[in-house]
Amino acid sequence: MESTSVTSKEQVTIPKDIRQKLGIRTGSRVEFRLVEDHVEMRVSHWTAEVTESGLDFADALHHASYRDCESMATFDDRKFSRRARKLGLTPVVIVPA
């Protein structure tokens, strides 16, 4: 297990080999969860990919709220579903007929 120090700004540097293995880069988002006496960290890859892809914040937030579902429906427009399909986002975005 690697260790690092907390800076005066209360920041911690994630070791390089861990960043590389998890695909963490500038702008990546991470989630933290307190579990008893330790912290779990999870990388939210979709955030950087979605925002860099041209989806607006509302679309990204809408999609994130459905991330544990098999699919989601949108009544917004077909552009969102096309962009999501092009990116290979899961859950699949559908536009009801």
Write structural notes for this entry.
The structure is a single chain. By secondary structure, the chain is of the alpha+beta class. It has a domain at 55-94. It is 35% helix and 21% strand. The chain has four helices and four strands. The protein has helices at residues 16-22, 45-53, 57-64, 78-87, and strands at 29-35, 38-44, 71-73, 92-94. The strands form two sheets. Strands 1-2 form a two-stranded antiparallel sheet. Strand 3 (71-73), helix 4 (78-87) and strand 4 form a beta-alpha-beta unit. The radius of gyration is 17 Å and the shape is elongated. The N and C termini lie far apart (53 Å). The relative contact order is 0.12. The mean pLDDT is 77.
Quick rundown:
The chain is α+β, with helices and mostly antiparallel strands and 97 residues long.
Question: Measured on Cα atoms, how large is the radius of gyration?
Answer: 17 Å
Strand fraction equals 15-25%
Average pLDDT taken over every residue: 77
| Secondary-structure element order, N to C | HEEHHEHE
**Number of E strands:** 4
Q: Biggest sheet, open or closed, and with what strands and sense?
A: 2 strands, antiparallel
- Which consecutive residue ranges, at least 5 long each, have pLDDT under 50? none
Task: Report, as a whole number of angstroms, the end-to-end distance.
Answer: 53 Å
If helices are DSSP runs of H or I spanning 4 or more residues, what is the number of helices?
4
Helix content: 25-40%
